[in-house]
Amino acid sequence: MQSSPCSFGRLAGFVFLVALSSALLPQAARADRCDDVAKELKNGIDGIKIGQTAAGTVYLAHPKAREITLGCSSKNVSNQMFGKSERKPTPAFIELMASAAAIVFTLPKDDMQRGVTRCYRRLGIFRGDDVASRYRRLDMRCARTKTESSITISRSKDQ
Q1: For labeling, which of 15, 83, 93, 117 is most exposed (least CB within 10 Å)?
Q2: 98: how many CB neighbours lie within 10 A of its CB?
Q3: Burial code of 49-86, b = ≥16 C-beta within 10 A, e = fewer?
């Protein structure tokens, strides 16, 4: 049996379409996963509102925080939470960030409460106003200025 050139072209076209669809499929799933995490945050924390999504970042709003964002996965990190509050963060803000990080990184809330509190306690005279630490395989970075303080919680891709 001989194959005709036309059947080879059809087979090559079919293989090309399958390869193209498999290359585009994971990119769509990544954006959906980030939106799903944002919806989990909205359902899990009272008072949180989902704002715009731009450049892999979902902007959130909550009355206890000046600014709160959810960073979606990129080449270096799987997910990232960022929160900004007054210079001395209130216990309500620390609880908000611990709850959000517990949902995003699927860890117990009391462990995240301990990690966020520990990060903020390290700020001061001895360690300075910008402290980076590790807790439960998460990278935590607390920083403060004269008017505000912020925390960034992320997990790198190699973890």
Answers
A1: 15
A2: 22
A3: eeeeeeeebbebebebbeebbbbbbeeebbbbbbbbbe
Q: How far is CA 137 from the centre of its chain?
A: 14
d(CA 135, CA 119): 9
Q: Give CA–CA dist 83/98, Å, rounded.
A: 11
> Facing residues of 53 across strands?
58
Rg of the chain over Cα atoms, rounded to whole angstroms, equals: 22
Q: Indicate the SS3 state at residue 46.
A: coil
Here the tokens at position 126 are 């001895």
Give the bridge partners for 124, in sequence order.
128
77-86 and 67-71 as β-strands: parallel, antiparallel, unpaired?
A: antiparallel
Q: What ranges in the chain are assigned the alpha helix state H?
A: 5-44, 91-105, 109-121
Question: What is the value of pTM for the model shown?
Answer: 0.74
Residues of the chain with pLDDT under 70: 1-9, 11-32, 75-76, 159
